[in-house]
């Protein structure tokens, strides 16, 4: 059984944004990031599945980066349900420090026999919402992914998430996801 087949069998893979992903997961060493919001100063069960998947990917030879976002904690939950309240910058920084310490300890222990993962910890709470800046980033990503653009325009609209993810990666998680989603959709449907 290949690594990709194992992930699919375990229910980890549902939709795939690129037909090349299976080949790359099985035969290459990819860099990926796992993002978490600093809504608390301690890890909780909600982090477990993404950390376990990251560990599995690391053990298969891929390279994780941990992104603890600052801006997302300060804006709270934009949905009407308001599951996450807005928190102060001071609390966000305290939470980032707590999460960083725990995540490093857990990852180092879990991956003791492997090469230590790299961490990208963001304390920069400046969210990127400037439409001109985001347009430039989005257009660069669209230019670099012509086959995904064509597939999107041919009805594979779930690729919207792929493009949003690429923008989030390019901005190291600092882009306003709602704005990115709207801009990507506008550009792809123009």
Unreliable stretches (pLDDT < 50, length at least 5) are: 115-125
Total beta-strand segments: 3
Q: What structural class should be given to the helix and strand makeup? A: mainly alpha
Share in helix:
40-55%
Averaged pLDDT, please?
79
Biggest sheet details? 3 strands, parallel
Q: What is the C-alpha radius of gyration, as a whole number of Å?
A: 18 Å
The largest beta-sheet arranges its strands as 1-2-3
Secondary-structure element sequence?
Answer: HHEHEHHEHHHH
Q: How far do the termini sit from each other?
A: 42 Å
Q: So what's the overall shape?
A: globular
Tell me the β content.
5-15%
| Total DSSP helices | 9
Describe the model.
There is one protein chain. With 190 residues, the chain is mainly alpha-helical. The chain contains nine helices and three strands; from the N terminus they run ααβαβααβαααα. It has helices spanning 3-9, 21-27, 48-59, 71-75, 89-110, 131-144, 146-153, 160-170, 177-188; strands spanning 31-36, 63-68, 120-121. Helix 3 links the parallel strand 1 (31-36) and strand 2. Residues 115-125 have low confidence and may be disordered.
């Amino acid at each position: 059984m290949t690594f990709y087949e194992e992930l699919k069998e375990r229910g980890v893979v549902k939709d795939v944004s690129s037909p090349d992903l299976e080949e790359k997961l099985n035969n290459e060493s990819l860099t990926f990031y796992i993002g978490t919001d600093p809504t608390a100063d301690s890890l909780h069960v909600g982090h477990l599945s993404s950390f376990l998947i990251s560990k599995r990917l690391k053990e298969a030879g891929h390279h994780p980066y941990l992104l603890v976002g600052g801006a997302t904690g300060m804006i709270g939950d934009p949905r009407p349900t308001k599951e996450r309240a807005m928190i102060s910058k001071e609390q966000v920084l305290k939470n980032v420090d707590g999460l960083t310490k725990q995540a490093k300890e857990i990852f180092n222990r879990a991956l003791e026999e492997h090469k230590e993962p790299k961490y990208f910890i963001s304390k920069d709470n400046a969210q990127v919402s400037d439409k001109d800046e985001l347009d430039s980033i989005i257009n660069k990503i669209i230019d670099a992914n012509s086959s995904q653009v064509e597939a999107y325009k041919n009805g594979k609209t779930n690729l919207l998430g792929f493009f949003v993810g690429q923008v989030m990666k390019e901005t190291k998680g600092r882009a306003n996801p709602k704005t990115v989603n709207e801009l990507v959709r506008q550009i792809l449907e123009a």
